[in-house]
Design brief:
The chain is of the alpha+beta class. Helix 1 crosses helix 2 and helix 5 crosses helix 7. The C terminus is likely disordered. Strands 12-11-8-9-10-15 form a 6-stranded mixed beta sheet. Strands 1-7-6-2 form a 4-stranded antiparallel beta sheet. The protein contains 8 helices and 15 strands. The protein folds into 2 domains: 175 residues, no CATH class; 149 residues, Nucleotidyltransferase, domain 5 (2-Layer Sandwich), CATH 3.30.420. A hairpin with a 5-residue loop joins strand 13 and strand 14. The longest helix is centred in the last third of the chain and has 38 residues.
Length: 375
């Protein structure tokens, strides 16, 4: 089984970085143009939203894409594959109805993140050398002393990323792992906005407190409001406006990293407890499209739309698979009303459940507080 890890390394800017990102954007724009040409040759006068994307279309575009770019050939291929993945994601969303009125990839880009694959990556001491297009010199980047050069053979891709004034390299490491055989237990997980994880395996109930994460979201909203208020008094494209923009995103990046760190700690602790208790399967609720059904007060809508249930689900799935635990998502409809003994539906009364088959569940405050887990 393969395990994928990423590392972010901040680097000093070089003038050629902007040229590389512009070249990637031009390749994306050329994909948009070639798609119009491909459809036009087959009878469509303009880009059709429901056009079938297959191997023939990808091969035709690969043949007609310009080869005179300053980028490595595999970097160009990666942009083409990203373009077709966007088409396939659009088709899946349109079929499932998870997002109302999804849009196909039609928007042009001036800049775009550039990726190098393994064959274009070379290391020499502390010097990283990335291959470019035919007839061009390799891009050389001096790595800091803190960079671990002992694992360079595991690097599969490198991305050149620009994030609000800061250039960085995103390294992707891929290696093989042999997860232990999973247990036989099953653990159900309810992903919530107040408490990120509430789990029960039939014997233990754990609640992971989300107070810290919610406080970070409140702080993020206040920071955005304060900077927006200050920037509204600035002239358009003024020096003060640009300075406030840089400071704003520096603060936002810090808070986002804190939120990401808290979510990782919650999910890591949860998966480790599942391993220690012999859990072989984790069952999660499928919350796809839940934001389309909510309409409460202004503050409640803001909290629910900032609810990172998708990120939390992805982290649990990724970390559980690394240790051999299966993850399954099910529809949450009527799960709180269905009797676990006979399968009939009964509405709970004051968190107490009673079914005609004899199954009962009483909510006891004393027993419940003993299971509260604050992490």
């Amino acid at each position: 089984m393969k395990r994928v890890k990423t590392q972010v390394l901040k680097i000093d800017p070089q003038p050629i970085f902007t040229e590389i990102q512009q070249a990637s954007g031009s390749v994306w724009n050329e994909c948009l143009y070639q798609m119009d040409m491909y459809q036009w040759h087959r009878g469509y006068l303009h880009a059709h939203c429901d056009f079938y994307i297959g191997d023939a279309c990808e091969g035709w575009m690969d043949k007609h894409l310009s080869k005179s770019q300053p980028l490595h050939s595999q970097s160009i291929q990666h942009i083409r594959k990203t373009y077709f993945r966007s088409w396939k994601s659009y088709a899946a969303l349109k079929k499932s109805g998870g997002i109302q009125k999804p849009k196909p990839p039609r928007k042009t880009k001036k800049y775009m993140t550039t990726r190098w694959l393994k064959s274009a990556i070379h290391f020499k001491d502390r010097l990283l050398r990335l291959s470019m297009g035919a007839g061009r010199d390799r891009l050389e980047i001096r790595l800091p002393k803190k960079f671990d050069a002992s694992k360079t053979h595991l690097i599969s891709t490198i991305d050149l990323v620009y994030n609000f004034g800061q250039w960085a390299l995103h390294f992707t490491y891929t290696d093989e792992i042999n997860p232990e055989s999973p247990g036989k237990g099953v653990c159900g997980v309810d992903v919530g906005e107040i408490h990120p994880i509430v789990s029960n395996d039939g014997e233990h109930t754990e609640i992971y407190n989300g107070r810290y994460i919610r406080s970070l979201y409140r702080q993020r909203n206040k920071v955005l409001a304060d900077f927006s208020r200050a920037m509204s008094r600035c002239d358009r494209r003024s020096k003060r406006g640009w300075r406030l923009t840089r400071h704003k995103w520096r603060r936002i990046r810090k808070i986002d990293n804190q939120i990401k760190d808290a979510l990782n700690k919650h999910t890591t602790a949860f998966v480790r407890r599942c391993v220690s208790r012999g859990i072989g399967r984790i069952v999660l609720g499928d919350l796809t499209g839940i934001r389309n059904r909510i309409d409460y007060s202004k503050s409640s809508n803001q909290k629910l739309h900032q609810w990172a249930f998708g990120k939390l689900t992805d982290l649990i799935t990724y970390k559980a698979k690394q240790v051999g635990i299966q993850v399954r998502q099910i529809n949450e409809a009527y799960t709180s009303q269905t009797c676990p003994s006979c399968g009939k539906r009964n509405k709970p009364s004051n968190r107490n459940y009673k079914c005609g088959c004899g199954f009962t569940y009483e909510y006891l405050t004393e027993d419940f507080t003993k299971t509260l887990l604050v992490t």
